[in-house]
Design brief:
Blueprint lengths: L2 E2 L5 H6 L5 E3 L8 H9 L5 E7 L2 H10 L13 H5 L8 E6 L3 H11 L5 E6 L4 H5 L5 H4 L1 H12 L4 E7 L5 H8 L6 E5 L1 E2 L2 E4 L1 H8 L4 E5 L5 H9 L4 E4 L1 H4 L3 H10 L1 E2 L2
Parallel strand pairs: 1-12, 2-11, 3-4, 4-5, 5-6, 6-7, 7-10, 10-11
Antiparallel strand pairs: 8-9
The chain binds flavin mononucleotide (FMN).
Length: about 260
């Protein structure tokens, strides 16, 4: 077992994360019950969502929910939903949202309930993208920055989830350089291959934010590769849907934060 001790893990220390391995958000699955399970199996922070955060994304989520498991909860019910989360590790919520005014209001309502508000600039479901959220924000980096500013008015940490191979990725990082973003959650997918491309992690690590490395992190060596590329934490998604909680335990044990 390796203990990871890195000066750049300051935010995770401040939040009190026991390890640097988190579950990744997966809409329709990562609800308060899932979060409690993830904590039991070693997650150092739990991700819930992605939930719709405004009217356009709520309407879009209802349409997506006709064909796959999806959180299609009215945004005004999100505080109640999240208040059911019974964990002692920090809580992050991934939100599909397009309207900065709605983001400011929702962040205010959630500030007491979560530690991290993650703006989803990642989802590629056509309905969500048509609504102006998810990866549509990578085409409109100014609006992404406005959403970040709106959330940052409140007392929580701001994260942005991005997809590395999207053509707008570099421009979005440039726009976020001067925005009050605390965390960049990078899906470093290598299209067509079950692995990651560390270039996306390296590019994000040039900004003054913590980087969570994501996609195909399955072994302690993958965790180390992400850390060497500049990530200070990693997240794991699909294996948990298949019930591979041992994987989360193994990786969490590998990346424990020293007291
Ligand atoms: C069923 C499913 C739903 C997902 N929903 C979301 C979501 O709502 N928000 C998000 O940022 N990523 C979402 N993702 C992407 C994951 O967070 C993660 O980026 C992706 O699965 C790659 O990581 P992995 O290789 O560890 O699974 C979803 C993935 C799956 C499989």
């Amino acid at each position: 077992m390796t203990s990871v001790c890195r000066p750049e893990a300051d935010l995770w220390r401040e939040l009190g994360c026991p390890t640097l391995v988190f579950n990744a958000p997966m809409s329709g699955h990562t609800d308060p019950e899932f979060a409690a399970r993830a904590e039991r199996h070693g997650a150092g922070m739990v991700f819930l969502g992605g939930y719709p955060g405004d009217e356009p994304t709520y309407r879009a989520s209802r349409r997506v929910a006709r064909r796959r498991p999806e959180f299609a909860l009215p945004p005004e019910r999100l505080p109640d939903e999240l208040s059911r989360t019974d964990v002692s590790v920090p809580i992050a919520v991934n939100v599909r949202i397009t309207d900065p005014n709605a983001a400011a209001e929702l962040a205010g309502d959630l500030a007491e309930l979560v530690d991290v508000f993650e703006v989803n600039a990642h989802c590629r479901q056509p309905e969500i993208v048509e609504a102006g959220a998810g990866e549509a924000l990578l085409e409109e980096p100014e609006r992404l920055a406005e959403l970040v500013e709106a959330v940052a008015e409140h007392d929580l940490h701001v994260s942005v989830k991005l997809r590395g191979p999207h053509p707008g990725y570099r421009a979005a990082l440039r726009e976020l350089r001067d925005a009050p973003v605390d965390i960049l959650h990078v899906d470093a997918m290598k299209p067509g291959e079950p692995t990651y491309d560390l270039r996306y992690v390296r590019q994000a690590a040039r900004l003054d934010a913590e980087v969570i490395g994501n996609n195909s992190v399955r072994t302690p060596e993958d965790v180390d590769n992400m850390f060497e590329a500049g990530a200070t934490a990693v997240s794991v998604g699909r294996p948990l849907l298949d019930g591979d909680w041992d994987l989360l335990e193994r990786l969490a044990g590998h990346a424990r934060l020293e007291e």
